[in-house]
Structures are given as C-alpha cells and as structure tokens.
Structure to design on (683 residues):
C-alpha cells in the first residue's frame, strides 16, 4: 500500500483520469431510413504509461487487476455530470490484447450530444477518457523495472495493480499519442470479410477469445457493419420487467405525494420538482430557500455550475485580475461566474454547492460545525461515487484557487536572479554534474595530403543540487465560519511571494559569498581600488578583462558581456551610463565627455547586493555578466521542469474541522563558469 505522506508514491484510492485511445461512432442513417440508436466503440486505454494530473510520475493501470463491474456504464462528454452532457451508455466492456475496449449506444439528444455526433459525421476524430480508482499502487523506483500489460516499464513509474473502473467520456484530446480515432462504416457499406476474418485482420485469434471478449469484439464488428445489436440477457438486465415497472410506478406515486405535501402553496416549485425528478428533501430545501431570501442562495435546480465556473467566481471574489481569470478558465466560465448565482461567491456558497451536489441540504445563512461536517462528508461521498474524483470537490477547487493566488503573487515579483542565471531541470535530489565541452586548439591548415586533424575536447565540470522549500496552508474552522476566503488566500499569496524571494535570496547569498575564490585576480575576473568606481574608465577596464578571458590552452574564448548588475545605490548611475551618450561636459583625459558604452549592456539593480542582512554585501561593488543563455556564471536548477511553486491538498485529522494543503518549491543554485562575469569592488 502507498502511504499518503510519501513524496514519490501516491496514496491509495487516488483517481486516474486516463485520456486515451480511440472512439468510433457509426455513421448517420440516410434520409428516409428508420431512425435508430447510433452505436459507438472506444479503445479506452492502450495499456501504456501515462502522465496524469496529480501524479508526480507516470501511471500504468495493470489491466489484469482492473475491476470493470457492470457492463452498462454511462458515457459522458468531458466528464461533466449533467443530463445535457450524457452521450449514452456501454453494453460491452472487455480487455483484449492488453487494451480496454468498450462498445455501446449513443442515446443523448441534447444540443451537446448532437454536436458530438455532427462533428463525428464530418470526420472529427474523438478520443476517450476513463476514470479509475487506484486501489493498490506499486511504485517502481528509478533504476528498476516492472511488467504490466505485456510490457516492461522502467522506473520511476506508478503501476496500479488493482483499480476500479469509473466513468468514461468523449474528449477532444487524448494522452495516448500512438492511437487515433476511426469512423465506422455506414449502413450502406458492408464488410467483405466474415467475423472470423475481420477479427484476424485486427490481430485477434477467435479461438483464443473468452466469451466476454468475443461478445465485445462481435459488437464492434456489427457496429462497423451497421448491424443493430440486440440486447443481451446479462448482468444489469431485469429478469422480471413487469414487476419492475409496477414497483417504479408505485415509487413515483409516493415521490409525487411527498413533494406535494412539502410544497404546499408553492405550486411552481411543486411542478418543477415533479418534472425534474426531485425528491421530497430537495423540494423542501427549495421551499426553505424562497421563504428566506435574505440567506445565501443554494442552487436547487437547473444546470449545476461547472467546477471551473466556481473557481473563476472565487478568483473574481478576491479581486484577482479579470484578464488573468479569463486566461485561466476561458470566457464561458467567467461569464457563468458573473451570473447572479455565483457572483461574489465565498466559502459558504462553495460548501452549500458541495452539499447540494451530493444530494444533501443545509439551512441557508447558517454555517456551524454541523454544516461544516456535512460539507466534508458530502465531499467524500462525491469522490467515492465518482470513482475517486468529482467535478465539484472542496479540496480540489480550493487547491486550484490557492495555486492561482500563489502563482499570481510569485509572478508579481520582479526577479533579477532569473535574468542573470541559466535555468535547468534535474530528475531528482541527488547532486548533478554538468559538463561544458571546450575545444582544444583552432582550425589547422590542411596539408597536401588533404588529411584533417581530429579535434580534441576537454571537460569542465560544474555541480548543482536542489532542495525543497515549503510551508503548510490551512483552512481553519474560524475562516470557514467567518466566510473569510480572503484570509485563506492570503496564505498562498504570501507563500508565492516568499517562494520568489527564496530563489532571489539563494542566488545573491551564494554570489556574495564568493565560494572557492570564484571572483579573484587569479581568475582574472576581479579588480579593486580607486579606479574601480563605476564610471566610463572602470567599465572599459571590466570589459577588457571580460574580453581577454581564455580557455585552458590560453586561447581567447570570445565571450561578450550583456548585463551590468549593480546595487540599488548605483541604479541611477548605471542607467545614465547605459543611456546617455555624453556624461560630463568638462572633458579631461580621465573622464571624456563622449560615452562609448552607452546602450551596450542591460542595466539591472538588486537590493540584495547592498543588503545589510547578507554577508559580503556592498553599496559600491558591481558586475558585468554574459548572457546566461550563452555562458552562465550561475545556474538555477528545478525538479523536472516545475519552475513555479506548487500547492497540493492533504489529509487532516478526523476530528479537525478544517482542511490542509502543502505549498512547496524544489530548486537549487550553484556557481558555474567564472569566465562569464567580472566583478569590480567599486573602491
């Protein structure tokens, strides 16, 4: 079993949103033909490793341990649990050739469903996305391998040895790039081969198929041939349909009677509740809502807002820039977020939405410990019913919004460090060694025999190692009761800013510590004294030192400076020297009026250089640096390309009326090539 607090191994019962494979829809019937239900087929998962949201390492679902359950499962569009997004249901699910293959009927007739069919008929290739709950996960570390689905997978990778199949959806993009969707043949076309020949052409041996596999493959064959598939007497079918119809009629009569009893004079609510299939509890909640209009609204009917619209509404409530919110969620989600039901949304409304989505109810305008517990229980119910994930999730929605707040604050810091350092990615927390290959010698004249001499390379090594920086974020009971979303998001904002400052501080602390005599006369990248004060003559001296740097053979390496880095005390002087062509009208031999360095380099100023809190700080010292994309004096390394901090949801104690998240950032800084910079003491 996987522990929840492991950095490298995901906890059990994590959701697996597998975007994969192919979807097939039978072509539309021709004009004049009898209307019938269209069929679809999906290659829902091809058995490979997939990079999934929420998982640090790739995930493989071992199809031998996948619990499929009932053959009839709803097919949705984009995982949206709304009747308008229902596409149909499966009637066959099977694992064949280490792939998950499903077939079924398209039953949806909403505009969304019709749009999917219309795009299909025009040749659009839909793909499939399945959800699964990971019940038992094997983590394969780096350097090890493990087998699943007839393949061998090298670590690091997670292999879900036991998983339970959840929902299946039509999606635009799949994560499996090796497969593509195909459109089934129309009814007017027919197979030139019989079933056995067709199966063999698809790579299946009919004699080796079990009963369920043969049934599923036959359905795909029939769907592509345009043949109707008769219902089968199997799991999920009713052996006594007459008795079922009578029982359903009796239950419907009881439901209507209960609704009429609780609605009383509210005839409009009664009609809506009967028409839309509400139960008595939901009808009572709506009556309570309209009776107490002063309380916060609970969306009791109609289309439930999507999670993205709720997140957008929360972002707008705390005054995040609307342009950024549109960029994150899109115009449609933001338009929904501005609606009457979501405008100004806070923590209370979010909790009510979660309770309502789970079929429960809470008294509007009252947030107490019971309501908080009800919301947490509703969240767990939604996750369990959705196979480990839900479109509306307290921890998921708040995690995403907290991440947005963190990234906004992180991006708002005007970083100097990232402009003077090279940025690289590493795979783990071990010390890494980087090599810069330098050529020995230059081109040589070719002799009469036409022979070219072999070039030799020498290695120059630099090391770096990353560490983790982080804090715990909590949504406390007091914040919930006070409906203080702003107080909650203030924490990730602070963490975002602190993360940016942590990188900045690490870079300049290392720079000022001058490790190993990085800046020294021996390296020919340091000078001091009265002539080192920032002025035209000292810039000339620094530029010459820079241009005169050589390789190990004493040959020039021709690196040019690109950045003038100064403390804030010299910011104005640096800007003048980089912009003004004449800096002194009283021309002398030491200070000419003409400025030959104007416009040469980018002036950057950092308060860390003259900070009193960092050893080695100076108000007079300044630096010339090369473009870090060419040759870098310093490097910032990140873990697997994650160049911004992250917030993840975590578990709290059972009796704690609150939620926790962890915010962390993995990075490391190191000195690199001393020839890519020159330091002047400035005095």
């Amino acid at each position: 079993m996987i522990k929840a607090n492991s950095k490298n191994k995901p906890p059990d019962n994590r959701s697996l949103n597998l975007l994969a494979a192919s979807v097939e829809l039978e072509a539309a019937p021709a004009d004049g033909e009898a209307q019938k239900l269209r069929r679809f087929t999906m290659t829902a998962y091809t058995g490979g490793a997939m990079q999934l949201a929420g998982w640090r390492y790739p995930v493989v679902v071992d199809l031998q341990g996948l619990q499929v359950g009932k053959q009839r499962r709803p097919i949705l569009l984009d995982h949206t649990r709304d009747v308008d997004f229902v596409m149909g249901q499966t009637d066959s699910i099977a694992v064949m050739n280490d792939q998950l293959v499903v077939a079924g009927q398209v039953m949806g007739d909403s505009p969304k469903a019709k749009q999917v069919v219309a795009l299909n008929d025009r040749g659009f290739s839909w793909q499939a996305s399945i959800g699964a709950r990971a019940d038992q996960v094997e983590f394969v570390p780096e350097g090890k391998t493990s087998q699943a689905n007839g393949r061998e997978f090298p670590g690091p990778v997670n292999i879900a040895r036991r998983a339970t199949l959840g929902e299946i959806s039509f999606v635009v993009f799949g994560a499996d790039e090796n497969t593509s969707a195909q459109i089934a043949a129309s009814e007017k076309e027919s197979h030139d081969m019989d079933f056995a020949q067709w199966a063999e052409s698809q790579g299946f041996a009919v004699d080796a198929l079990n009963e369920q596999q043969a049934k599923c493959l036959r359905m795909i064959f029939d769907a592509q041939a345009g043949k109707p598939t008769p219902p089968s007497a199997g799991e999920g079918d009713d052996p006594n349909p007459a008795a079922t119809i009578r029982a359903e009629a009796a239950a419907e009569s009881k439901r209507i009677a209960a609704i009429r009893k609780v609605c009383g004079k509210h005839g409009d609510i009664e009609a809506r509740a009967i028409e839309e299939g509400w139960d008595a509890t939901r009808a009572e909640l709506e009556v309570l809502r309209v009776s107490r209009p002063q309380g916060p609204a609970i969306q009791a009917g109609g289309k439930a807002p999507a999670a993205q619209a709720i997140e957008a509404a929360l972002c707008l409530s705390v005054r995040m820039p609307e342009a950024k919110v549109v960029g994150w969620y899109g115009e449609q989600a933001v338009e929904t977020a501005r609606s009457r039901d979501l405008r100004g949304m806070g923590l209370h409304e979010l909790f009510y939405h979660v309770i309502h989505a789970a079929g429960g109810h809470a008294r509007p305008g009252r947030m107490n410990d019971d309501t908080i517990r009800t919301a947490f229980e509703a969240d767990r119910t939604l996750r369990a019913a959705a196979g480990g994930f839900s479109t509306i999730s307290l921890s998921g929605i708040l995690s995403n919004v907290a991440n947005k707040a963190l990234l906004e604050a992180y991006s708002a810091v005007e970083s100097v460090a990232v402009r003077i350092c090279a940025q690289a990615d590493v795979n783990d927390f071990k010390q890494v060694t980087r090599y810069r290959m330098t050529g020995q010698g230059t081109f040589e004249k070719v002799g009469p025999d036409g022979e070219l001499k072999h070039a030799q390379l020498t290695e120059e090594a630099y090391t770096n190692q990353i560490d983790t920086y982080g804090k715990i974020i909590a949504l406390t009971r007091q914040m919930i009761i006070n409906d203080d979303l702003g107080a909650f998001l203030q924490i990730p904002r602070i963490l975002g800013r602190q993360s940016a400052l942590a990188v900045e501080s690490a870079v300049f602390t290392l720079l000022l510590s001058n490790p190993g005599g990085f800046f020294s006369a021996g390296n020919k990248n340091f000078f001091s004294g009265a002539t080192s004060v920032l002025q035209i003559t000292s810039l000339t001296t620094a530029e010459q030192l820079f241009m005169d740097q050589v390789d190990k053979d004493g040959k020039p390496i021709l690196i040019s400076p690109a950045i003038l880095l100064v403390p804030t005390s010299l910011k104005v002087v640096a800007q003048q020297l980089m912009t003004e062509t004449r800096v002194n009208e009283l021309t002398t031999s030491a200070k000419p009026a003409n400025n030959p360095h104007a416009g040469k380099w980018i002036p950057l100023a950092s308060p860390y250089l003259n900070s009193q809190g960092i050893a080695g700080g100076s108000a007079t010292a300044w630096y010339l640096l090369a473009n870090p994309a060419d040759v870098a004096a310093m490097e910032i390394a990140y873990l697997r390309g994650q160049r911004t901090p992250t917030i993840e949801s975590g578990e709290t104690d059972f009796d704690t009326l609150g939620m926790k998240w962890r915010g962390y950032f993995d990075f490391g800084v190191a000195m690199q090539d001393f020839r890519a910079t020159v330091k002047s003491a400035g005095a």
In short: The longest strand covers residues 157-171. The CA atoms of residues 205 and 357 lie 46 Å apart. DSSP finds 17 helices and 24 strands in the chain.
